[in-house]
Predict the 3D structure of the following.
Amino acid sequence: MKKNTQPRHEAGVRPTSRDFRLIEYNEAVHSSELELEPIKMREEFALLKNEWDQFLSKTQTPSPFMSWDYLDVWWDVYADRGFEPKLFIARDTEQHIIGAAPLMISQRGAFAGTRSKFRHLSFIGSLGGAAGESLELPARPGYEVALGEAVADHILENLQGQWDVLYLSMIPHDSRSTNTMIKKLAQAGIPIKTISSTASPIMPITSNWDDHISEQRIKERERIGAAFLNGVESTKDLQLMRAGLEIGLEPAYEQLIRLSKLSDDDSFARVFATTDMVDFHWKLAPRLLEQDKLFFGLVKIGDEFAGAVYDFMDHGKMWARQALWNPKFEDQNIKLILNTWSDKAAFDRGLEEIDYLLGISGRDVSKTRYTRTLNIYEAACPKSLGGKLFSLARGIDRLLESKN
């Protein structure tokens, strides 16, 4: 049984962002004092709109992929497509939300691939097209351990037999609440394995834009200058068009889908063109644009749309979600134009840092200051036939890999 849930750092991976922050904890309660309140209907979740994000902002990792709007749209789009929400909240004696368990169970066939033959217990949004980053059990400081233990108890006592595979994707390695849950499940006979660790690059914003550019290497400054035509961001040959301002949301999203289909070598890009994701982002984008939580823009070179940026902004950070471009414009520095425009938007808004989502934003890790380690955890349910079959299949895969 594997009880150690510490991440496996790859060679050369720099310290994580949390290693630069001193966080004090005061474990105020025990799991027996927490009562998990089920939120069974989307209408019930709607009643939490005014307090959910306020609660989230006080947690260890306030990810935009756990914001009220993101979860509400996910519920609207995916709940009837084989993904069953299992959402719980915990309150203190003054009825403030102090913890939450945004879980879901995917039924067989809910998503593509051989994995879909098994029922998965995971965090909302961690499977299917709308997969997010930095997912965890959000908790107020002092309640992390109690929440993790309470959620583990609930899984053991109430969800056994409903799932085959526990799959926790893109979890911050230092999530105290989630690590507590994993440890307690392992002690109860559900061995959790760390199947991968990913370094997600982060750049803190500590200067103004001009100073930031001046810190770049001469060659890089020259490339940025050429890409932006010496600081003139919109000319006849190069136009930067923001959705909802210089271009309407509907035509902007149509171009986003077109560009995603052109990115044949990027599965993260192609997912934007799936039916579910079109529906999901078509409902999410207007909400985030209205709150200035989405930086969605298109780059037009000559008479043709050459690329797009689609970045979330929340809790003082930019989460570089997606950069898409037409490969025919590679020689015209389209990737550099998109990344520079995205970075400048974060500086202009006075944000604190930029989180480059690995494998999606296409950023060079060496250009950032440090990284955060994100782990994927997995376990087979020992009390379900599907779990036993999954464990057997995993064993065969490992045997074949060792032979190869």
Summary: The CA atoms of residues 198 and 374 lie 5 Å apart. The chain is about 35% helix and 25% strand. Residues 17-197+374-403 form a domain with the Aminopeptidase fold (CATH 3.40.630.30). Confidence is low (pLDDT under 50) at residues 1-25.
